[in-house]
Design brief:
The structure is a single chain. The chain is built from 3 helices and 5 strands, in the order ββαβαβαβ. The protein is globular, with a radius of gyration of 13 Å. With about 110 residues, the protein is α/β, with parallel strands linked by helices. The longest helix has 16 residues. β4, α3 and β5 form a beta-alpha-beta unit.
C-alpha cells in the first residue's frame, strides 16, 4: 500500500508542486498511484518535487508511472526533483539509468 499527499508550500516560489510518497508502489497499487500522481502533476505546468523519505519499495511498474509524469512535466520545460530516496531505491534508479532522467537530491 502507498500514500501520496501534497506538501504545504513553505517557500515563496509557488511554481512548484510538492508531493510526499510513502509505502510500497507495486503492480497492485499502480493504477491508483498513477491516477493520483497524474492528478497532482496536472498538465506538467510547474516543477515537481517528490519527497520519497517514506517510500519503502517501488517496482518497474511504479518507475514507469514516474517516467510518464516526467514526460508531462518536461513537455512544459519543467523538471522533476526526487528527494530523500532510500539507498536501495537510489540503487535501482542508478541501475536503470533513471538517475540521469530525474534530478535526484539528498535530504533537505
Amino acid at each position: 500500500m502507498f500514500d501520496l499527499s501534497s506538501l504545504t508550500d513553505t517557500d515563496t516560489d509557488k511554481d512548484v508542486v510538492r508531493i510526499a510518497i510513502s509505502g510500497e508502489i507495486d503492480l497492485q497499487a499502480a493504477p491508483d498511484f498513477k491516477k493520483r500522481l497524474y492528478e497532482a502533476v496536472g498538465e506538467g505546468g510547474t516543477d515537481v518535487v517528490l519527497d520519497c523519505a517514506d517510500l519503502s519499495y517501488i517496482d518497474s511498474t511504479g518507475l514507469g508511472i514516474l517516467l510518464g509524469a516526467l514526460k508531462r512535466v518536461r513537455l512544459n520545460n519543467h523538471h522533476v526533483f526526487i528527494r530523500n530516496l532510500k539507498d536501495s531505491i537510489r540503487k535501482l534508479f542508478r541501475i536503470t539509468g533513471l538517475d540521469k532522467a530525474f534530478i535526484l537530491e539528498e535530504a533537505q
